[in-house]
């Protein structure tokens, strides 16, 4: 598997570290309540098919949001997390 | 048909022409008291104990593929009771006791082999942690023996004790740990359940869960709708998809775990050896193959095959620990889809939908749990109260933060357990 880093181009999967689903981008307010925090930290759609998740590219130290398929391992897009529109 | 030595002998004389299929292939009925989704180890043992321990008979197990085609037939077969945290300790202890009587219970040879498990350590800090774990195991009533380096050398002379990165200081020996034949466990429970009247329905995928006013009323399947008063979701790596049919979101992320087996060799590895620092463990099957594995591929996946970097990593760790295995040729590798939970411990509980139960979150350790998991889910469904050794496996512990059981202390990230 290869991911195309927006800074570095197509690179081997071993240069990247997986963090988790893109749910981690929507951090609730500290007082948002148990349900919001449960959803942020634990609950997942966990789709068999297209998904969005977060990866870190170790060489250029950028956080990336990856659209990919959990069944075929095809990568659809890789975009930097920094500067993204909410 | 009851199996016995005499039966094997008589069948041998008669040319083995008298063996019968081991379970029926019934058509699904329009209605059952209890429907179990998933014919893996946990679904089959749940059905068996519902019938055996609680006298319930009108039960169906619905399996989308064939019985034992999921993780129950893909794992590396390690059976142990060396957990540390209250909640897990008593559950796995109960499971190991059930394993010890399983062949007599099922009248089926599951090839349970208590060959002993040795977890290696490589530093003073790790030694202290293992002493603590060993004491917890003894306090639970199970067995643990601390081995120093010479103690390990006596049992495992073939290890590379002086390797630069992780010199071996000793090991925690769990004599009652071992392995079992994974398919046979599925088949044994399937045969046992069938004999007690449970309908085992294969090639029957559940495609919907019907509810009315917050109560479960049945399921939709590729073989038609089936009404039921109670439904249990026991779908391992596919748990999130099944729960979504009832509008539920689970604290589960699915990941691939790979395993490998070599060509058959003469007996060389007598125990189960676990090299935690290298993410590597190994045993030898009765057929002679070296069966070994490592860690997850680390990213969410439903592909029941692995990626090459983890293959390389596992081979490197094996060569570091026991250079002799470099001579063995790897025959096959495969992957299974693991239902990873945020604290690494499982869930056996009710759901917010009345009559609907969930059993999932087994991470990569659910094979050893097969007997106790079925025992405890059956208890919960039949009596309405959790079994005392599974009281900690609550679904809401993540939401409330109370009673989390994070054995490795790695936090809430699903893939780190
Ligand atoms: C490589 C590997 C090594 C492992 N090693 C060990 C080990 O050494 N020790 C240990 O204790 N554990 C180990 N495990 C973990 C263990 O195998 C699993 O935790 C356990 O088998 C999961 O429970 P199960 O047997 O019920 O799952 P499965 O056998 O996967 O059963 C789930 C079943 O549900 C069915 N299903 C899914 N969706 C539907 C649907 N919609 N309708 C109908 N049916 C459906 C599936 O087809 C499947 O048969 C390992 C796993 C792997 C992959
Ligand atoms: Zn980069």
UniProtKB/TrEMBL annotation, chain A:
What domain of life?
Bacteria
Signal peptide stretch: none
Q: What's one GO MF term for it? A: sarcosine oxidase activity
What does the record list as GO biological process?
Answer: tetrahydrofolate metabolic process
The name this protein goes by in its record: Sarcosine oxidase subunit delta
Q: Which organism is it from?
A: Pararhodobacter marinus
From TrEMBL, chain B:
Q: Which UniProt keywords apply?
A: Cytoplasm, FAD, Flavoprotein, FMN, Nucleotide-binding, Oxidoreductase
Single GO cellular component term: cytoplasm
Subcellular location, principal: cytoplasm
**EC class:** oxidoreductase
Cofactor(s), names only, from the UniProt record: FMN; FAD
Q: What one GO molecular function would you report for this record?
A: sarcosine oxidase activity
Q: Give every Rhodanese domain span.
A: 34-78
Which domain of life, per UniProt? Bacteria
Which InterPro entries does this UniProt record tie to the protein? Answer: FAD-dep_OxRdtase, FAD/NAD-bd_sf, Rhodanese-like_dom, SoxB
BP terms from Gene Ontology: tetrahydrofolate metabolic process
Catalytic reaction annotation = sarcosine + (6S)-5,6,7,8-tetrahydrofolate + O2 = (6R)-5,10-methylene-5,6,7,8-tetrahydrofolate + glycine + H2O2; sarcosine + O2 + H2O = formaldehyde + glycine + H2O2
Q: What EC number is given for this enzyme?
A: 1.5.3.24
Pfam families linked: DAO
Q: Tell me where in or outside the cell this protein is found.
A: Cytoplasm
Q: Which family does it belong to?
A: Belongs to the SoxB family.
Task: Tell me what this protein is called.
Answer: Sarcosine oxidase subunit beta
């Amino acid at each position: 598997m290869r991911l195309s880093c927006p800074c570095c181009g197509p690179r081997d999967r071993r240069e990247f570290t997986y963090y988790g689903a893109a749910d981690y981008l929507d951090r609730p307010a500290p007082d948002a309540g148990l349900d919001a925090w449960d959803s942020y930290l634990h609950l997942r759609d966990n789709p068999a098919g297209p998904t969005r998740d977060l990866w870190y590219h170790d060489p250029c130290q950028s956080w990336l949001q990856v659209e990919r398929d959990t069944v075929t391992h095809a990568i659809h897009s890789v975009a930097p997390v920094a500067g993204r529109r909410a | 048909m009851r199996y016995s030595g005499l039966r094997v002998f008589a069948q041998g004389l008669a040319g083995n022409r008298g063996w019968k299929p081991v379970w029926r292939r019934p058509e699904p009925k329009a209605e059952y008291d209890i429907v179990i989704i998933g014919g893996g180890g946990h679904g089959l043992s749940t059905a068996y104990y519902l019938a055996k321990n609680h006298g319930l008979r009108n039960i169906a197990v619905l399996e989308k593929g064939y019985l034992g085609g999921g993780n129950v037939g893909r794992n590396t077969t390690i059976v142990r009771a060396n957990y540390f945290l209250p909640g897990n300790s008593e559950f796995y202890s109960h499971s190991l006791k059930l394993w010890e009587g399983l062949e007599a219970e099922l009248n089926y040879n599951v090839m349970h082999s208590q060959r002993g498990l040795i977890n290696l350590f490589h530093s003073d800090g790790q030694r202290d942690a293992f002493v603590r774990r060993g004491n917890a195991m003894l306090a639970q009533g199970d067995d643990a023996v601390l081995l120093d380096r010479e103690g390990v050398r006596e049992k495992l002379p073939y290890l590379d004790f002086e390797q630069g990165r992780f010199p071996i200081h000793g090991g925690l020996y769990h004599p009652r740990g071992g392995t079992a034949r994974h398919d046979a466990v599925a088949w044994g429970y399937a045969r046992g359940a069938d004999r007690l009247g449970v309908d085992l329905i294969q090639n029957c995928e559940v495609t919907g869960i019907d509810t009315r006013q917050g109560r479960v009323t049945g399921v939709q399947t590729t073989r038609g709708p089936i009404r039921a008063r109670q439904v249990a979701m026991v779908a391992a790596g596919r748990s999130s998809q099944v729960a979504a049919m009832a509008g539920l979101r689970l604290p589960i992320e699915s990941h691939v775990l790979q395993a490998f087996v070599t060509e058959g060799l003469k007996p060389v590895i007598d125990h189960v050896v676990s090299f935690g620092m290298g993410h590597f463990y190994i045993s030898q099957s009765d057929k002679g193959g070296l069966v070994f594995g490592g860690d997850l591929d680390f990213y969410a996946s439903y592909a029941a095959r692995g990626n090459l970097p983890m293959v390389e990593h596992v081979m490197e760790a094996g060569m570091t620990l026991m250079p002799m295995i470099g001579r063995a040729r790897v025959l096959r590798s495969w992957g299974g889809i693991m239902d990873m939970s945020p604290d690494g411990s499982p869930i056996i509980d009710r759901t917010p939908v009345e009559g609907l139960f969930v059993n999932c979150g087994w991470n990569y350790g659910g094979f050893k749990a097969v007997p106790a998991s079925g025992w405890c889910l059956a208890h919960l469904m039949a009596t309405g109260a959790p079994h005392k050794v599974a009281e900690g496996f609550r679904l809401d512990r993540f939401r409330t933060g109370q009673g989390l059981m994070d054995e490795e202390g790695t936090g809430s990230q699903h893939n780190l357990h």
